[in-house]
Hints:
By secondary structure, this protein is an alpha+beta fold. It is built from 3 helices and 12 strands; from the N terminus they run H-H-E-E-E-E-E-E-E-E-E-E-E-E-H. Helix 1 crosses helix 2. The termini are far apart. Residues 286-292 have low confidence and may be disordered.
Amino acid sequence: MTDNRSRIAVALVVAALAGVALVSMVVDRRAFGRGHEFSWWSGAVLDLAVPVQKMVSTPIEFARTAFRDYVALLEVRRDNESLRERLAAISEENLQLREALVASGRLARIAEMRDDFEIPMLPAELVGLDVSAWFRSGLIDRGRQHGVFSGMPVINEQGLVGLVTATSRSAAKLMLLIDRQSAVDAVVQRSRSRGIVRGSRGDNLEFEFVVREGDVQPGDVLVTSGLGGVYPKGLRIGEVTEVSASDSKMLRTASVRPAVEFGRLEQVFVMLRRGPTMELLYATDEGDSADAPERPGS
């Protein structure tokens, strides 16, 4: 019962306010037509109508402003989504440009090496890496159908990576330079002292040389000597970091940091020509099968 009375009272107040506003508008219209000041009662009605009209117009203006802000918020949200999509596209383009710059630097260095060695080279991607306690090997996405055969050296723009040891039609396995079974005839670039580079613990190398003829110091650069019939002469191997003391009167060893960062190895290049020793060793290997193309340089 009380609720009904409250509702009726609110309705009567609203109706009265609306009536006052209506009367105000009628009086205002008549006064405008007559061109003179309002009478006292007309002025009183007008004074009362001002706050009433404010009460009526304020919620309407509030609703209009809220709707306008909501529409603006939707526009801002759409703009933000568009900007996020554009930013993602620009970031992707930037990443591709950086990769292209890195690749162009590699290709420029390899082009120089190709001219130096006069050996055709085939780019390949490293798709697998086996780094265990005893073996260091990799898998590339090029095989016999691309002209890749066992015994071919593998390099990148930094230096010597390793040697192809097995192939299939479309893939090949590499023995990395840091493998303990790897052995490379090397020479010190500064003094021309010769020795053998072998894989060691971790990602390091050891350089074993003859004491009597050896002139090896930290900072010396090692390159392939070209002897042994496996690798061409002049491929960068690494840098001597420490020369170890030895009780042996014949041999000494030096620690070598590889030129190639094997932990970041991605793209490599296969030198499509085997050395004389490898050519004799693999003369009757699977590379002579019917599905393989003619070997370059053979």
